[in-house]
Amino acid sequence: MIKNSDAYRTIGIVGLAKNTGKTTTFNALIEHYRHETLGLTSIGLDGEAIDQVNFLPKPKINVYPGMIVATTEACLEQTLVSYDVLVKTPCATALGQVFLVRILSQGTIMLAGPSTNQDMNVLLKLMKMYAKRIFVDGAFSRMTFSAMSELDGIVLAVGASFSPILEDTLMKTKHILTVFSYPISESTIDHPKASWMIMTKNQMIIRMNKSEEAFRHAILESKGDVQKMIVHGAITTRWMDMLIDARLHDFTLLIDDPTKLLFHHRMHDVFEKLRIRVEVIKPCPILLITINPFSPNGPSYDEATMLQYMKAITDIPVINVKQEDIYAQ
User: Fold this and answer.
1) What rounded mean pLDDT belongs to the chain?
2) 137 and 35 share a domain?
């Protein structure tokens, strides 16, 4: 189902919300690639028996001999699988230091990895020395996505637990698909990491810090003649409100990567209405969408209806991994 999958060495598996089938998807990918030298890690903790929020049973992460796993010593102490320690990494978590191990026997394991971009990038570069392909367990709630600069693509798990209303889930998914399809920037402008920057049509450059006062002052200074705006960090709903209030339109917005667009999905058409062209420094395509029509917290969806509507909004492959092999088509 992932076309040209060999081109994607490091893949993040991300859930639209909790209980959307992310771990089931993760295990399906592991099963398919189990005969490769596969690397596994997580942003935060995953693979625990009971969900720490709703206390429901969770699927465990399956591992096979030869796989490379990055997790903490505390998690390793709770597993029954055999392993060899390869490296004690410099990455620390709330559960202790992260170890890189080679799995020697089949079983299940808890994954706990770094939650910061810097540590996750260090870890993934280290894992690439040992593993042919790496899967990173993530969640949009833990984003801006750690390790974004190291990811080649994303598998998105969508489920009824996001909302009891299918239309709302479809709208959120459509927003995510749009966000992750923005083109890479070909700009050669210096991108200051600690500021916003406005470039006007007469080539004047205005640098500012991330305060509403600085933003409003920069808009006044530019006289609304904005050609390009560079924003490092999250584009929040509040930022979008300021943009609308400033009545800016018809310019290019350059962001670090798709995960920085954290505003509410109900505002997803604002860029189109204001004729704002979005470009990213680091793109990351969505490679596959998996669906989970069941919700443990409320109404579930009809599976056939969910599948039909989800396929109608995208050309990306969409499957239910509980009903279909992840690479059957």
Assistant:
1) 86
2) yes
